[in-house]
Amino acid sequence: MANPTLVSQNAAPVDSYASNTTKDIRVVETTTRSTQSPSTRGPNDNVCFTLIQQSLRSRGFSKETIDIILQSWRPSTKKQYASSIEKWLRFCTKRAVDPVHATVTVAMEFLTKLVHSGAKYSTVNTARCALSSLLWSTSDNKTQFGSHPLVIRFMRGLFNLKPQYPRYSHTWDVGILLRYVSKMEPLQSIALKQLTYKLICLCALTTAQRAQTLSLFDISNMKVRNKQVCIKITDLIKTFKPGKPQPQVILSAYPHDKSVCVMRTLLEYLKRTRSFRGSKSKLFLSYTVPHKEIGTATVSRWLKQSLTEAGVDVSEFKAHSFRTASTSAAANKGVPINLILQTAGWASSTTFAKFYNRSDSILCSEGAQSQFSQAILSQK
Predict the structure, then answer these.
(1) What is the pLDDT of residue 287?
(2) In angstroms, rounded to a whole number, what is the distance separating the alpha carbons of residues 128 and 120?
(3) How far apart are the first and last CA of the chain?
(4) pLDDT band for position 293 (50/70/90)?
(5) How many Å apart are CA 74 and CA 279, to the nearest integer?
(6) How far, in Å, CA of 344 to CA of 331, rounded?
(7) Class of CATH domain 174-377
């Protein structure tokens, strides 16, 4: 059996919690929380990532190197890790354990406590990943906590106890939403709110993109080519990785039914927002004065509100269900699996099959890239 000691006991005794590392953390924690009101207090990135800084510093990395390493986590990941590491800090405080030099046994007890508190598999797995940023083996300086054989076996056992199922076992009919937005006509006379909702829904359906990506659509990276609008995504998104081509989203015209044509709706939206857009380059702006650029949370809220007004049960389906609904509908229409993966930004068919595909069957055939959106819009 593998040695359960991730960090040697000689490296940091259990009673060394009053070390300079922990003192620094307590100073930052006290200073930060004193400046926060009770209503805004929560998992603190500064406090939690001080632990990671101390862990890296103890391994001999310079401040300059540490600053670069800390940029490897995206804001959303930092927020998730902050919550887990704050719980870890409280756990170590009660047991007088140094949170940066704890053993794998202590860390696994922390995961066990999370399980007994009712945490789901995904929550415990996030905590495992967060601790991997802190705890390393001193024997080879390479093995992270999450890669330890006993931790891997623990997570396998937890999955057997609490299997992680996809959020949706079925999905909603995209035809319901298409019929709803098709009634928002004529485009020139409907309210800006309706025009905005119509465009955001058609974009979500015909591109199968996340709310984050939709919020990053930028008119400065937009090119109109005959019957298509090409949008380059230059910001960092979830699927953006080294060596991977820069993401590009295609909005295709749909001449068969102009009431659900995303390109026509986009051009009208640009025309309607031109007078108050000014220097704002993001495509989607708030439909209320002062018409600010909006973020991911607002896009999600608009999508969810559209589902509500169309008659879809939002107690069951959230904004992210647009990806499930559209890709499943495309699969039912016979869109090739490789085209679905390319459109949605998935590298593996396993992700689609396990978490998103709720179609009856998948048929493979040849087709152009616009086939995805054509298949979606034809279901009105």
Answers:
(1) 96
(2) 13
(3) 59
(4) very high
(5) 27
(6) 12
(7) mainly alpha
Q: Is 232 left (phi over 0), alpha (psi -120 to 50) or beta?
A: beta
What is the pLDDT at residue 242?
62
CA 53/CA 222 separation, integer angstroms: 40
Write out the chain in H/E/C secondary structure. Answer: CCCCCCCCCCCCCHHHHHCHHHHHHHHHHHHHHHCCCCCCCCCCHHHHHHHHHHHHHHCCCCHHHHHHHHCCCCHHHHHHHHHHHHHHHHHHHHHCCCCCCCCHHHHHHHHHHHHHCCCCHHHHHHHHHHHHCCCECCCCCCCEHHHCHHHHHHHHHHHHHCCCCCCCCCCCCHHHHHHHHHCCCCCCCCCHHHHHHHHHHHHHHHHCCCHHHHHCCEHHHEEEECCEEEEECCCCCCCCCCCCCCCEEEEECCCCCHHHCHHHHHHHHHHHHHHHHCCCCECCECCCCCCCECCHHHHHHHHHHHHHHHCCCCCCCCCCHHHHHHHHHHHHCCCCHHHHHHHHCCCCHHHHHHHHCCCCCCCCCCCCCCHHHHHHHCCC
Q: What percent of the chain has pLDDT over 90?
A: 42
Whether the pLDDT of residue 34 is over 50: the answer is: no
CA 338, 342, 347: angle at the middle one, nearest 5? 85
Check residue 186 and give its pLDDT.
95
Q: What is the CB neighbour count within 10 angstroms for residue 133?
A: 24
Instruction: Tokens for 292, please give them.
Output: 């600010």
Q: How is the chain split into domains, by residue range?
A: 14-161, 174-377
Residue 26 pLDDT exceeds 60: no
